[in-house]
Design a protein that fits this description.
The chain is α+β, with helices and mostly antiparallel strands and 363 residues long. The chain is built from 15 helices and eleven strands. The strands form three sheets. Strands 1, 2, 3, 4, 5, 8 and 9 form a seven-stranded antiparallel sheet that branches. Helix 5 packs across helix 9. The longest helix is centred in the C-terminal third of the chain and has 24 residues.
Length: 363
């Protein structure tokens, strides 16, 4: 497994978003490909190596966040991991100077202009491409739970949106975003992507923004549902649950069990409700077609993946991190509490900086 994390680059004194080009140059000075520019100048992405355990992944995430934080401090800046930046004005932030980004800005106009969003992507290795597509078909019903656990974007342009993950609603506007269709094979996936390219909808496979997709660079299943995870613990939780879910699907495929069925409208409803309420209200179980408390649906998810978590030696850690999430709330919940305490978005940003840059921050 591996994790890609996207961060906002912020002036440490004014809390305004700033150009991350100098920070990127610093962390890539040794020719590292572990960091890369994102669509907007004020964003930067870090990529872990291939990790085989949560312990290894935690060390990798700590090292990469630490390197970014140290380099940023030298320049009077810092980093923030959240799906949206609380006080950001998209009109004041430029695009990163790359031909690919120039194309996106020109092709998608206002949609691209307003795209000031950060996510966390988890890759789980699945060597056979047809199998990766079958896994995609099976994981969709649990993606809203991953969204609720990662929700970190309640504020947009200085206002409380009422959503736990407003990033999800903004992201959904892209023509290739959302739940993927049910696919029969990797060949069908390839054909559908080529149709999108030939019709001018996208420039390449990298612009297929489904919530889960076959990896474009690696033989993986790539989970793209999560907001940028504010704490390392939350990133570990996403990775551990995603890997266990893939393992569970592989076991079901080997046993010849049918994929769970859920109507597209219920998958959409489940995802919307997770974005709207996060962990604070009832969520939709799209297979059972019922509304249940978030704690119940999270518990059902844990039960579903308990066997592979136990086999990997991850059960104790993931169960504990899940209980922490339910006890302390999502990042969105904590941001809203910080705002309620002072009425200041600057205090929300301070809170985000602390949680992002402190490896073992206690919530």
């Amino acid at each position: 497994m591996g994790v890609e994390e996207e961060f906002f680059v912020v002036d440490a004194q004014t809390y305004q978003l700033v150009d991350g080009g100098a920070l990127l140059d610093t962390v890539c000075r040794e020719g590292s490909e572990d960091y890369t520019a994102e669509l907007r100048r004020c964003m930067i992405e870090s990529r872990t190596g291939i990790c085989w355990s949560l312990t290894e992944l935690r060390a990798d995430l700590r090292a990469r966040r630490g390197a970014l934080t140290s380099a940023a401090t030298e320049a009077g800046t810092t980093i923030v991991a959240s799906g949206t930046y609380p006080s950001a004005d998209w009109r004041q932030v430029g695009f990163s100077p790359q031909p690919r980004f120039d194309h996106i800005a020109g092709a998608y106009a206002r949609l691209a202009d307003e795209h000031l969003l950060c996510a966390c992507h988890v890759h789980v290795g699945v060597e056979d491409r047809d199998t990766s597509v079958e896994v995609m078909n099976r994981v969709r019903t649990w993606l809203p739970v991953l969204s609720a656990l990662s929700a970190s974007s309640p504020f947009w342009a200085g206002e409380d949106t009422g959503y736990a993950s407003y990033r999800s609603t903004m992201w959904a506007r892209w023509p290739t975003a959302g739940m993927p269709p049910t696919l029969s094979s990797y060949a069908e996936h390839h054909d559908r992507v080529q149709h999108l390219v030939s019709t001018g909808t996208i420039a390449d496979a990298g612009q297929v923004f489904w919530d889960v997709r076959p990896g474009t660079r690696y033989h993986t299943v790539e989970f793209r549902i999560a907001d940028s995870c504010t704490t390392i613990d939350e990133a570990i939780l996403q990775a551990g649950l995603s890997r266990a879910l893939v393992s569970q699907c592989l076991n079901e495929i080997e046993r010849g069990e049918p994929a769970p069925e859920a109507p597209p409208e219920l998958l959409h409803a489940a995802k919307w409700r997770a974005a709207r309420f996060g962990l604070t209200e009832q969520l939709v179980d799209p297979v059972a077609a019922e509304l249940v408390p978030a704690t119940v649906l999270v518990s059902r998810f844990l039960d579903h993946v308990r066997a592979p978590l136990t086999e990997a030696g991850d059960w104790t850690e993931i169960a504990s991190l899940t209980q922490d999430a339910l006890r302390w709330g999502s990042s969105a919940d904590r941001q809203q509490r910080a705002f309620s305490d002072s009425g200041s978005l600057a205090d929300v940003v301070k809170h985000l900086i602390t949680e992002t840059t402190t490896p073992d921050h206690s919530r």
